[in-house]
Structures are given as C-alpha cells and as structure tokens.
Amino acid sequence: MTMSGAKNFDRETLERALAELGRRAFAADRTVEIVIYGGSALLLTLNRQINTGDVDAVFEGSKDFVRKLAAEIAEEFEWDENWLNDGVKGWLSKRDADPDVKALFKTYPSEESPGLRVYTAKPEYLFAMKCRAMRVGGVETNSDIDDIKLLIRAIGLSNSQDAMTLVEKFYPQNMLQPKTRLGLEEIFSNLGLDEGTASSSSAT
Questions:
Q1: Quick one: 4 exposed, middle or buried, by C-beta within 10 A (0-12, 13-18, 19+)?
Q2: CA distance 75 to 81
Q3: How far apart are CA 81 and CA 192, in angstroms?
Q4: What's the predicted TM-score (pTM) here?
Q5: Which range marks the domain in which residue 152 is found?
Q6: Residues 203, 194: Cα–Cα separation, whole Å
Q7: pLDDT single digits (tens) 128-145
Q8: Which helix (H) or strand (E) holds 106?
Q9: Could you tell me if 138 and 181 lie in one domain?
Q10: 33 with 111, same domain?
Q11: CB-hemisphere CA count at 13 Å for 141?
Q12: Which residues pair with 14 in a beta bridge?
C-alpha cells in the first residue's frame, strides 16, 4: 500500500489500512473497536474528497495492542509511525460515551472474520467538533470551513442559531470562543442562508 501525495490517505488507502489492521487483529484472535473522527470520518461516511495525513481515532479498550499493530504496519509500508493516533482525545465532548453520537461504519476484514470494528462520529458530533476547533482567520481560506459547510448540508441546518444550539449540545458555552458564533454567522451568510428568516430546523 502506498499513500497518495505527501504521505496522505485517500479513501482507498484508508480502507486498505483498516482492512490490514483488522486482518492482523483477527489473526491474533482479537476483535478490537476504534472510533474515527475528523477528516477521516468525513472521508468514510460522506465521501469527502480529501486527503488526510493521519487518522484521528480513539481505541481505549485495546490501546497497546492497536498501537503495536499500527506500528508494525507503519514500518512495513514505510508510513509515519503516528498514522493512527489518539490526539483527538482533547477535543472530545462529554457526550462521547453516549452511543447515540456514534455509528458502526464497517467490520474489517469482514463480518465473518471480525478483527476490527470501526465506528465513526455522527455528522452532528463531527459538526460540533469542527466548530469548536474553528481557526481564527478568513473563513474562505480555511479548509475546515469546507468541512463545516458539507456537514451543514448533510444535517440540514438552515441558520446559524440552530447550528449554535447544536454545537452547545456537545460543548457548553464556556468551552467555546466568540469566533465560533461569528464564524457560523459568516458561513451561513456566504451560503445564502440566515437572511432574516425565522425558520428553524431540527438539529437533534
């Protein structure tokens, strides 16, 4: 397996990597579970056409075992040793333990040979995480903004107030910066929404 570009995953490479991880886990008579977030989750669930340099995941139940397999794969295919990492943990919501905010994506290498069960954060959760991490700067030059716009459409949000209410279901106001609300207002304005409408969308 080779990565496209500068050590980046496209969807094909990512799925092959997960299949390889699952194959090795099954060969060791283990079935492990990981939850994938960020760009990799968008790549898998919404077919977001991006390349991502690493896979943001949490694998608390089998941390040492998964890291061992990931390191073996990295060495064999000359990948970055941190291609699978749990750096996203600092961005997780207190609702992360709620099963309703995640969904089973796929079992690798197959349901008949279950070595790895991959869960992904649902679009509403991914949206809240992206908004919380929204970078300072012009929204038109920020790659995260494209992800936020994609999620707005996938969820069906129609105005910034509903969007902010959704974000606050995952993160209390004291964990959010003023730029979050301002950024959402600008994004919806650029999308041609939020033009004085009083309509409200469901964001459960």
A1: exposed
A2: 7
A3: 43
A4: 0.86
A5: 124-190
A6: 16
A7: 999 998 864 544 446 788
A8: strand 102-109
A9: yes
A10: yes
A11: 3
A12: none
